[in-house]
Design a protein that fits this description.
Layout: H1 2-16, H2 28-38, H3 40-53, E1 57-62, E2 65-70, H4 71-78, H5 87-123
Antiparallel strand pairs: 1-2
Length: 145
């Protein structure tokens, strides 16, 4: 069950993390606001792309002649990444998520350890009380002729 749940959460994080669609194209109520900002893929990809493209300059040939475009412009305009903070903030957010999720799952495990015996005692049926009728074996049964 843990493997299935982990794979499902990972799949949701991939879908909402901006891998398959740009962030502005995500459906707002579910995919953008809770899932996109909680997805660890978002911060991993933003940190990776900022590390690779932020300092680069690309030349493009247009009708007016060759011009240059910076990596920041590509990240901000084309890939729709948040450029208000550095790649190290993305790394810090990822490390914070690791610590938070570890503590969260530790809390789940400890809660289940405490509650499981209580639930099993309430869910188990009380022992049935049986009544036994003792027949005196020394007396013979009444026989009619």
């Amino acid at each position: 069950m843990g493997m299935i749940t982990g794979a499902g959460v990972h799949g949701l994080m991939m879908l909402g993390g901006g891998i398959f669609r740009y962030p502005n194209d995500l459906f707002k109520p579910f995919w953008k606001y809770p899932l996109y900002y909680n997805s660890f893929h978002k911060y991993a990809y933003q940190g990776l792309f900022k590390n690779e493209f932020e300092k680069l300059t690309f030349s493009i040939d247009e009708a007016g002649g060759p011009t240059n475009i910076s990596g920041k412009e590509i990240l901000k305009n084309k890939l729709q990444m948040e450029m208000g903070y550095s790649k190290w903030v993305d790394v810090a957010i990822l490390l914070g998520m690791v610590v938070l999720y570890r503590l969260l799952f530790l809390g789940f495990i400890k809660t289940v350890e405490k509650i499981k015996p209580i639930v099993t005692t309430f869910m188990s049926a009380p022992p049935k009380q049986t009544t036994q009728v003792m027949v005196n074996p020394s007396t013979a049964p009444l026989v009619r002729l």
